[in-house]
Amino acid sequence: MEQLENSAWIVLLLPLFSAVVITLFTRRSGRVSALISIAAVLGAFLITLGLIPLVRQSGFVKVPPLNWISVGDFRIELGLLLDRLSMLMLIVVTGVASLIHIYSYAYMKGDPAFSRYFASLSLFTFSMLGIVLSNNFFQMFIFWELVGISSYLLIGFWHGKASAANAAKKAFLANRIGDFGFLLGIIIIWTLLGSVNFDHVEQRLITNPAALGAFAGLVGLLIFCGALGKSAQFPLHVWLPDAMEGPTPVSALIHAATMVAAGIYMLCRTFFIYQASSAWPEFLSFMNGITALEIIAWSGGITALLAALIAVQQNDIKRIPAYSTLSQLGYMTMAVGLGGTSAAMYHLTTHAFFKAMLFLGAGSVIHAMHHEQDIWRMGGLKKKMPLTYWTFLLGTLALAGVPPLSGFYSKDAILAKAYEQHTGFFILGLIVAVLTTFYMARLFIIAFLGNGRSNSAAHAHESPRLMTVPLLVLAVPTVLAGFFGLESYLSKDASHAHGGGINELLFGPINHAPFAALGGILAVVFGLFLAAGLYLNANRDPLPLKARGLARTLRNRFYIDEIYGELIDLTQGTLARLADWFDRWIISGLLVRGVHGTTEFAGRALRLAQTGNLQTYAFLLAAGIALLLLLVFKP
Amino acid sequence: MSILTYILGFPLLAALAIAFIPRNYRFLIRLVSLSAGALSLLSAIAMFVHFQTGAAGYQFVEKRVWVEALRISYHVGVDGLNVGLVLMAAIVAFAAICAAYEIKEREKEFYLLLMIMISGVIGTFASLDLFFFFFFHELALIPTFIMIGVWGRGEEKNYATFNITLYLSLGGLIALIGLIALYLQSGANSFDIVEITTHLQNTPLPEAAQKFIFPFLLLGFGILVSLWPFHTWAPLGYGAAPTATAMLHAGVLKKFGLYGLLRIAIPLLPQAASFWLDIVAWLCLGNILYCGLVAVRQKDLNLLVGNSSVAHMGFVFLGIASLSIVGVTGAVVIMVAHGLLAALSFALSGYLYNQTGTFSMERMGGLMQRMPFVGAVLIMCMMAGCGLPGFANFVGEAMALFGSWDKYKLITSLAVWGGLVIGAVYMLKAIRSIMHGPMPEDLPATFDAGPVRKIPFALLITALLLFGIFPRLLTDKIEPSAKGILAMTKSKPVAVAPLK
Asked: Is A583 within 8 Å of B424 when comparing Cβ atoms?
């Protein structure tokens, strides 16, 4: 019994085991591979559930670590950290992953690379669990990278398609830019504090808040870079919408529910480094007076607004939720920046459920429409696909933040935090809430209501049960997750977790911060009316007619991708061309060929004694030996 | 006899045997080579397993006096610094023999030279005598030139052969001058590295002598390891070399210079080293950033791999320059890891060349559909090359970077960028244009590797993963030896991170 915590290792290793077995042995049998993969993730989920009481009792369980490297002060101990935070994330990841594995079995049926799909999915699950359970920065970075590569493999799953291959590459590179900061931050932390373990670093910073010295602010920003990449925050957000080139269940699991949440999770996990004073090194002295957290909050706020605006003019049933994911992640980042880590984690949890459901619903539609993704070619799906319709409706309402669905409570937690901290962010949050409701209602009205706009819409039919059951299961937490008092569970504040009863649970937000709650509800109502007025019974988008320039800018994502393309070509491209030119013409051209020419000249002079070029070495060697003998026997 | 003598002796015996096999007995020639390589590899594994971690001094030592008057002796032995290198050399050697399958002309001569080269390569890293250290290096180098000249490929073959011969002979010569000067100045009157080291530990060389000798060793070794700006021979030469030769040279023989720096130049000339290493730290950016950017621009797969191999040497130089226990240990890990990786990269590009008849990445594409195994290995190889955890390269490069930040803040930051971002740019570009996307129509029929040809790939990937997942197999062995080297540089305070 006392070894129970060691079963956390099994949670972590089961998916890895599945990935290895599939790769080595069952590649040829897709069914077996799928079953192994599903069994592994379900097993991990069940063991996770079994671990809940353990964490509940003690709140914090440390699993004995393994000594992975120990050289001088560089000691990396791979350990697992089980506390309230990681437990919540563990449940979300294994739970959502289980459902998506099952869903994939039906969705991916008939794909020639069925086994490869499940092997990659298992690899991803393993890596993601590794991030969640890490007890030190270095271990987290290891799994961080592994998540990056599994995401790369899954986005580029249909690698024969140029767009998928390009999207995979783009995602990996954007993540790598973020990881650059992350790794550098870890290096600085280790150099200054001599440890990478979360608890050691936290202790050091509590006993001596100035332990990071002039690097405190910089370290905070560098670590945040990791989150910028993985959670696709502005300015590294460009990869996420393209990542929708991957199979839809992958988008649901990785690019909506789990991997992109890793950045938020990491910020919450390492929040202690932001509580230290925000000093800047000399070359960044212009940053004095600004804290790393402020930058984080702004980055999140900008992403939330930007992505929500772009989502308004997208027409792809996967891209709209993708931009919505960006926008919601921006909310969470903003919450972290404002100091509300528990609000951020709360929203992360509820968002994981309803966004996964929305993506799986979108996948169900795409499946029924024979891979049609344009919402303007859909319509009238309400009657054809009732289960998908109802779950999608639920997801839309939860995302918009309609009480009493879970999304209302978690979004309210963020809005309340913003209201308390900074009015600017509160207003920004409200605008985003209006936009969220607007674009989701637009998507929903066009795709599901009205009449079918194409042949495949008219002939659509409900998806198989293996796909609809996960939708129904996800509907449960979508409705209920708001009632568990997750925020107080996370903030380790027992005072209002037990008191109040059902009344407190349902109406808590209104009692605590009525202005924020009412603002949120008003935003929903406003957004809903706006969308209904524009899109009910519309056969094409009226917005581009009314505001042509704006609509085009939004549709083209503010031209950010194009600007980046130019920028990269201008900087890295120019440098690379320059280096290549220098290498070709100066070093190997002028210098080496010059030496070559001189040597050849000397060689011609020596030709009487030597027979040809290849013998040059023999000559040099002989000369060396002669020199050796001369020097040895001289003294 | 020491097991090391067996490891380097089997290939030499095989070379001897091949000389007496008639040239049309192709199968027998291959069989002899493969068996010698396998025996050598098995012995190397046995040596690695039986190596006593943390024990003082050298193990598996054998010493036979050769020239009494000059105190030259055949002296082999390993400590933590070279035990991994000898194992890596044996692994790469076996893989290279497998890859030599592609040679279809004058096989007898090729295998003969290959086996001599292998013996030399292993001998270099096992030797504890300056004379043999250098002798074995030349023993491996001469067949390299001949193999490139005779069995090489590409339009630039002749120029590449000339270039690499000239460069490496020059590097060898300059290093030789330094070594001889060291021998003369040390006063130990011996070629034995162990004896010189003990002698100099007690009576260090005067600073003026150190500052005179060190530049020779640095320049000579630097040229041999393709330190920027003496690197242009490498991509060109490897591009022209037959696969097996490129694998052995880029993978193993090239590490001669790095090993020489660590084993000889730095511990014996510590004061000069601490002065010159600051310059090396800057030059290493030339490798990491500059050659990385050059690799980004390449359209030829072999040139890309060659430039990337040069770029990776920068991390080794950075780790060594840091003179910290973490950095130096990391540098040695990279030497082992990169040896395996470079061999794998050249084996892959050689295989693709044989299948498609081109190195031009623009003319390839979508090959993943035709060759899932080779494709998977290529992706793993490229990922190992851009520092993905799980592969040994990540461990080494991360340690080199962790170890050097304290001393070189700006350089390390730029090196992190080079490793994580620039490395990823060209590696992903290669995967994208070779394996992914649609297949060009004019591509000849290509086939995935058969079971036999999978062996070298599987062997090298397994080794990379093994050391990447269980890095203590290497680091625990390297650390005590690295500490010994750093202890000899104590004349200047060593930069180590503060205790917690």
From this structure: no
Q: What is the 3-state secondary structure (H, E, C) of A251-310?
A: HHHHHHHCHHHHHHHHHHHCCHHHHCCCCCCHHHHHHCCCCHHHHHHHHHHHHHHHHHHH
Determine the average pLDDT of the residues in A494-499.
44
Cα–Cα distance between A233 and A262 in angstroms, integer?
12
Is A184 in Cβ contact with B329 (below 8 Å)? no
d(CA A274, CA A220): 6
- The candidate with the shortest Cα–Cα distance to A471, out of A367, A348, A346, is A367
- On whether ipTM exceeds 0.85, the answer is yes
Per-residue pLDDT for A383 more than 50? yes
Give the pLDDT confidence of A114-131 residue by residue, as tens digits.
889 999 999 999 999 999
Residue A16 above 90 pLDDT? yes
Residue A622, Cβ density class (10 Å: 0-12 exposed, 13-18 middle, ≥19 buried): exposed
Q: Which residue has the tokens 């332990």?
A: A211
Closest CA to A460 of A388, A401, A358: A388
Quick one: which H or E segment has residue B466? helix B451-469
DSSP assignment string, A383-437: HH-HHHHHHHHHHHHHHHT-TTSHHHHHHHHHHHHHHHH-HHHHHHHHHHHHHHH
Would you state the pLDDT for residue A83? 86
pLDDT of residue A284: 80
Backbone angles phi, psi at A451, to 5 degrees: -110, 155
Among the listed residues A47, A308, A269, the one whose alpha carbon sits nearest the alpha carbon of residue A143: A269
Which residues in chain A are contacts of B369 at CB distance < 8 A? 160
**What is the pTM (predicted TM-score) of this model?**
0.90
Which residues of chain A does B165 touch, with a Cβ-Cβ cutoff of 8 Å? 613-614, 616-617
Q: How confident is the model at residue B495 (pLDDT cuts 50, 70, 90)?
A: very low
Residue A239 pLDDT greater than 80, yes or no: yes
pLDDT tens for A399-428 read 988 888 888 888 888 888 898 888 889 999
Q: Are B166 and A596 in contact, with CB atoms under 8 Å apart?
A: yes
Spatial separation of the C-alpha atoms in residues A604 and A601, rounded to whole Å: 5
Determine whether the interchain pair B184/A613 forms a contact, defined as Cβ–Cβ distance below 8 Å.
no
Contact at CB, B497 and A70, closer than 8 angstroms: no
